[in-house]
Amino acid sequence: MSDLPDALLLARIQFAFTVSFHFLFPAITIGLASYLAVLEGLWLKTGREDYMNLFRYWIKIFALVFAMGVVSGIVMSYQFGTNWAVFSDKAGPIIGPLMAYEVLTAFFLEAGFLGVMLFGMNRVGKRLHFTATLMVALGTFVSAFWILSVNSWMQTPAGYAINANGQFISAGSWLAIIFNPSFPYRLVHTLSAAYLTTAFLVGAVGAWHLLKDRANPRARLMFSMAMWMAAIVAPLQIFLGDLHGLNTLEHQPVKVMAMEGHYQSHPEGAPLILFGIPNSAEGRVDYAVQIPKLSSLILKHDLNAPMQGLDTVPVADHPPVGMVFWAFRIMVGLGFLMAGLGMLSLWARACGRLYEWKWLHRFALAMGPSGLVAVLAGWITTEVGRQPWTIQGLMRTAESASPLAAPAVAASLVAFVVVYFAVFGAGVLYILKLMAKPPVVHESAPPNIPARAAGTTPAVALHPDALANE
């Protein structure tokens, strides 16, 4: 047990590393599944082939990202059993059923229709294929619903009781557990972030191809659709983030203190610290650039509203302020840049120069990974800001870890780092290679399944023209 502190740190690093990788893939697939549904729906409604060409272009990328998300997600359950066995034992009666609901609803729904979506375009009717695409998009939403419910319960636990064995169990109402106080805010904020992540990836790909050939109608179409999404959803996301922040202030005030860099209480209005270097040893933000009383105005809608600081909280309950402080600013800064790009695209559209202004295309290209960086910064803000608690106010992270020796955790951490960078690095490079190719007039669909994969009846016998697509 003398190795526990070192093992605890390594276990936290391992989980942070693997979940960071995993979180990026659902952030893309949630939005991309809905984008594919929109493209196919518009194709069915208008008959415009450019929509179908874009559908076939992006479905190949979706399939790869979806597969990497599934594979990286399996590791999460592995770590619950190895590095976080105490947490699994204590919280299992609540966490386990919610995760099971995710499998029984979202995963089964996605698994049931994903094959039809990927390989059924020439094998089922158009309406049935569109239904399959809608079901996959719905499945990604349902999956996010359950996972975020689990995470939100850990942030703002509700509806629980503790039995004689020290385990968290339902107090009688699963609705109180599922719809805990922070869940609705976290759900809409995270889903809109996923849609923005996809929009800026699509916009960057469109901008890349417009810089090469501004007359490409498919590049124009994807860029236009992405910029509409940026112009509408980015300002909405800022509003949703404000609501989420007010909810966090109510239920997790210490996290907000770290986000704002408020080491000291401010009885007559707290300043908004724009930048600075958090100094936890001295309890202050060095070289702070701040606007007096603006934090009180934003958080409590009153310039003179008092704001408590970390000086009112035991030091043992302080989160790592520096990491939370900067992750929050990265997320917010990127959010405003996204909204700025959306507004600029509206101006360019109004001037009839949406496909002509190269500086706008370069800006959109540079913002391509901004959604991924923002969701990762948001996750760091949420999870690191909750420390030192695994279950807010009830179970500490130090109490949640398995009694492992540090070398055992270090060995698995090194293995994960090597395998992840090798496997997922190759996958990302291949996705970038696909994105670098422009969508063409007759974009090919994902490869057809083998002729006898589904049974003894050759697929060619059902569709004689399928041989030409092999």
UniProtKB/TrEMBL annotation:
The transmembrane residues are 15-36, 57-78, 98-121, 128-148, 193-211, 223-240, 323-347, 359-380, 404-432
Which InterPro entries does the entry mention?
Cyt-d_ubiquinol_oxidase_su_1
Q: How does it sit in the membrane?
A: Multi-pass membrane protein
Localisation? Cell inner membrane; Cell membrane
What superkingdom does the record give?
Answer: Bacteria
Keyword presence, Membrane: yes
Entry keywords, A to Z: Cell membrane, Electron transport, Heme, Iron, Membrane, Metal-binding, Transmembrane, Transmembrane helix, Transport
Q: Which family does it belong to?
A: Belongs to the cytochrome ubiquinol oxidase subunit 1 family.
Name by which UniProt lists this protein? Cytochrome ubiquinol oxidase subunit I
